[in-house]
Amino acid sequence: MARMFRVLGFWTLVIALMAFAGDMYEFALLFFVQTAVFFLFGYLNFTERTYMLMFWGYMVVAFLGFTYWSVFEMGMPV
Where, by residue number, does the polypeptide cross the bilayer (predicted)? Predict the structure, then answer.
């Protein structure tokens, strides 16, 4: 399970680099931070249960943030 967090770190790094190349600096910074956290968690060797709980916590926070942003921060389409 620790290896999967390193895989998540790799893919968030790829997304961050593509965002940085596309001049989306805030988006890239968000994914660089996620990359660092995923790599850090990947090398801490927690139990599989802990990794699953951290992943589901991450998913809840990510989906709540996405929902908040898309409903309250984005303007209505014209």
Answer: 31-46, 53-72
Rounded to whole angstroms, the Cα distance separating 23 from 25 reads 6
Mean pLDDT of 46-61: 96
Within a 13 Å sphere around the CA of 10, how many CA atoms are in the beta-carbon half? 6
The pTM score is 0.84
Name the residue type at position 75.
G
Asked if 8 contacts 51 with a C-beta cutoff of 8 angstroms, the reply is no
Q: Which of 4, 33, 32, 39 is CA-nearest to residue 17?
A: 32
Tokens of 54: 């951290």
